[in-house]
Amino acid sequence: MATLKTITNPDPSQAKIKPSYYQKVVRSKKPCLECGKLYTGKTNKSKYCSSSCKYMAQKRRNLEGKTVRAKHHTSGVDRECPVCGKAYHVSQFNVDRNRKKVCSLKCRKKLNEKIYECIFCGKEIKGFKSENKKFCSHKCHGAYLRKTSEAKNKKICKQCGNDFISQLGGVVTARSGTFCSRVCRWDWERINNDAKPIACSIWYCGICGVVMREFRKYCSPECLKENDRKYQYARSSAMKSDEPIICKQCGKAFVPEYGNKKRLFCSTKCGNRYARKASGGGNFRKRARRAGVKYEYVNVMKVFDRDGWHCQICGKATPRENRGTRYSNAPELDHRVPISKHGPHTYANVQCSCRACNGWKSNHNELGQLPLFGVVAG
């Protein structure tokens, strides 16, 4: 366990050095500047033994005129209170800022007092100048509003012809303020609704024209589907373009028969030819048969394991999980001498390459692509 070191007389030259966590500084006693009592202060800058001595010293310095507050009180002007007539002193600080116009807060309230008169009953009301009192109570305020609203909201009942005052607030409806009571409103509605003929509620289907006794646009789900089909046909007809489109495979100009579906080929046959061309012309057996070259079954995974899953053109790693994706480092099977240049489909003529290098190389190499990196035997 750590021991507690005690420093009895600290060196004055090392006063700025803070004691460590396990050290305790013992300060010597010094006399209070007010009462002369010996005390040990919490800090070296303390001058008084207690807060009462500090307050008494401050009061004594104010009376002697040694503080800033005392200087403010000594400089300034003497005024007479306009409310009670008492003489009081105003410091120069408050004179510069146009303050202390009265001697106390009580006189200040009396100076700002104002007497108002109630608009409804005429009773005197005490208040301040900042207020604008018109009524002495809530009762007078409500009575004044009711009295003034009589002329504004006075109406004649549409059924009985008597005068009435419409009530303030509530839910406002189509006939609010038209009748004096609910009884008059019900009587008016019964008389006027009986005089009107009952309209026949009949609707017709928008597709087949069948009569319906309830409000609907179509009589059945079949009519609803027929409406959607007509809408799509009208929309496609509006999008149809009469300008001819050049087939991307054979170059023949054609116009789509139904709408503009953004077709790029004149027929399905041209589309399939373009797809085979873009994907390499189908599987390797058919490509080798069309080119008239040697073919043997090649296990793609064995080739990739043999080449260490690295591109034999740029040396980039081709991870197994990128196989079949469109990433630039996806592993693909490449022919050193392309089949279109009479290269055989054998283990000796294939290698692992990344998707970027395989697309860049294409079939431009007629002499053959030698492996640029080490080959790991499978």
Structure description:
Helices cover 30% and strands 14% of the residues. It contains 11 helices and 16 strands. It has helices spanning 51-64, 68-74, 92-96, 105-111, 138-152, 182-195, 221-239, 268-278, 284-291, 300-306, 355-361, and strands at 5-7, 23-25, 30-31, 38-39, 76-80, 87-91, 113-117, 124-128, 154-156, 163-165, 203-204, 211-212, 245-246, 253-254, 331-335, 350-354. The radius of gyration is 53 Å and the shape is flat. The protein starts with a strand and ends in a 17-residue tail after the last helix.
Question: What structural category characterises the helix and strand content?
Answer: alpha+beta
Strand order of the largest sheet: 1-2
CATH fold title of the domain at 284-361? DNA Binding (I), subunit A
**Fraction in beta strands:** 5-15%
Q: What helical percentage do the residues reach? A: 25-40%
Largest sheet: 2 strands, parallel
Distance between the termini: 69 Å
What's the number of extended β-strand segments? Answer: 16
**Computed CA radius of gyration, to the nearest angstrom:** 53 Å
- Per DSSP, the total helix count is 11
CATH-derived architecture of the domain at 284-361: Orthogonal Bundle
What are the low-pLDDT stretches, counting only 5+ consecutive residues below 50?
Answer: 1-9, 374-378
* CATH top-level class of the domain at 284-361: Mainly Alpha
Order of helix and strand elements from N to C terminus: EEEEHHEEHHEEHEEHEEHEEHHHEEH
Mean pLDDT: 79
Shape: flat
